Amino acid sequence: MPVFPRLVALYERRGYEITTGLFPPHFGNWRDVAFTWLLRDGQASTRNLGIAQQELYFLECLLAGWRPPNIFIIGNSFGWSTLALALMSPRSRVIAIDACFTADTNAGMVLTNLIAQEERLNARALRGVSPRDVPQMVSEQLGGAIDLALIDGNHTNASAIEDFQAVKPFLRPGAIVLFHDVQTFNLFDAMKEVVRMSGWSGQLLLGTPSGMVALFDRKALPPGVQETLKAYAPTSGAIKALQADLARRKEEAAARKAKAGA
Ligand SMILES: C[S@@+](CC[C@H](N)C(=O)[O-])C[C@H]1O[C@@H](n2cnc3c(N)ncnc32)[C@H](O)[C@@H]1O
Q1: CB-based contact 151:167 (threshold 8 Å)
Q2: Cα of 96 to ligand 1 centre, how many Å?
């Protein structure tokens, strides 16, 4: 069975409700409705949302032909991406860290580890602040090697660079680093910097709702990964064509309105 319904069931069996992938135009163009919400007794249990449903499918595609032994995540919240990756790639060791600055992320960490333990998933969430605690966590928990990193902690340019600097010494050849929310939080300055620091390629994935960026070494791409990245990265020509179409529609609508008012 695909991972999404299994993942939802993990939370539902413990009394939670999940909503994810809702379509913003149906909710007054509320951006965050597309991401993953954890609810209990009719109330949101956290403000730190999980990755969107489309992003889950992106990860599932990415991992269809590639089994990275070690996965490291900065930003666990309630464990949505942590448990998702553990379900998608059962032979991988998944370690997530979270600063747990708030009560909801603390509770989210307890829930993540409870589910991982009860379901016998190879995943663990640990309290730790990036960049400070990354070297120790990666050394102790992953033997000092990372094959896939998901950076989804504090969404500023400075933090994205610091998070990358923290994981960089541990990246194995062929590793991929995913940055969540690059488009949403305008983290493009950080992306220029991490590309410069690594000498690798950065690919914006506009097919993911948060506008993720994948950073990778073109000469060492794991099997199937290039096809997945390409599928989630519409060409600039396609984007320009859609933007021109949108501008035309707006002009036509304005002209119709002006005519009706005349
Ligand atoms: C958007 S949430 C992560 C969502 C998660 N990746 C998922 O999809 O399920 C961001 C998390 O990053 C954590 N965080 C923020 N700054 C951090 C830091 N410097 N080190 C570790 N965690 C941090 C927050 O506590 C929050 O839980």
Answers
A1: yes
A2: 9
